[in-house]
Amino acid sequence: MENIIYLTIALAAGALGTAIYFVAPLPTWRYMRTIRRHRVADGPEGQPVRIVGAIAPIGAPLIAPLSGTPCVYYAAQLIQWRGKGSKILRREFHVVPFAVVDESGRALLDLTVEHFRYTAVPRTLYRVTSSPTPWEEAMLARAGQEPSPTRGWTHSYQFVEQALTIGTQVAVVGVGVREPDPDAVGAVRGYRDVPPTRLRLGPTSRGGPYVHPVRPSLTGP
């Protein structure tokens, strides 16, 4: 089952009603494991490479709205409950550029939310409430929801958050272009040292770049 469950923002049926998934035509992780793994320092240019490392922000990270956790991507969903039924009122997505860091260097990714369409991003937090926080009230307002002047909030609302948090171990696949790494200049200790470089990962012929939380099949060679 796990090889067909991937992220999109669509409410899964069932009692929890909080998972947000997409059924991919071809599991991304299966494609990713066909690409040879490299360290960042050894990754060749101009061909697909697979890098495994930890997520690190480039610049200021995002703050996931419900958990308050620093992250590089999050998806938030607002659901209204009425009796036994529910209705998705709003979905929001945010991503910032980030790097994947291993013991040898950094691989940079400039992604849009579309790149996360087939990515199994863990659910960070969800809660059901009729007493929303200020951030939740702002999201309700963006969804066109307002409290009753006399009775306040009269419905139960569910807020769902999925996020890629700082330090999460992931595998990434893309075509690498090597460039100087200005943030690692301090690693050069003498004139004989080779200036440090980093990889910037772009799409492969299949698409991407691809990001997936680490699983055993993606950490091998």
Report the sheet-strand fraction: 35-45%
The profile of the biggest β sheet is: 5 strands, mixed, barrel
Q: What's the pLDDT, averaged over the residues?
A: 78
Spatial strand sequence of the major β-sheet: 3-7-8-12-11
- Rounded to an integer in angstroms, the radius of gyration calculated over CA atoms is 20 Å
From the N-terminal CA to the C-terminal CA, the straight-line distance is 25 Å
The number of helical elements comes to 3
Description of the structure:
It is a single chain. With 221 residues, the protein is mainly beta. Helix content is 8%, strand content 43%. The protein contains three helices and 13 strands, in the order E-E-H-E-E-E-E-E-E-E-H-E-E-E-E-H. Strands 3-7-8-12-11 form a five-stranded mixed β-barrel. Strands 4, 5, 6, 9 and 10 form a five-stranded antiparallel beta sheet that branches. It starts with 5 loop residues before the first strand and ends with a helix.
Helices and strands in order, then pairings?
Elements: E1 6-11, E2 20-22, H1 28-32, E3 48-57, E4 62-63, E5 70-82, E6 85-95, E7 98-102, E8 105-109, E9 123-129, H2 134-142, E10 156-165, E11 169-180, E12 197-202, E13 210-213, H3 216-219
Parallel strand pairs: 8-12
Antiparallel strand pairs: 1-2, 3-7, 3-11, 4-5, 5-6, 5-10, 7-8, 9-10, 11-12, 11-13
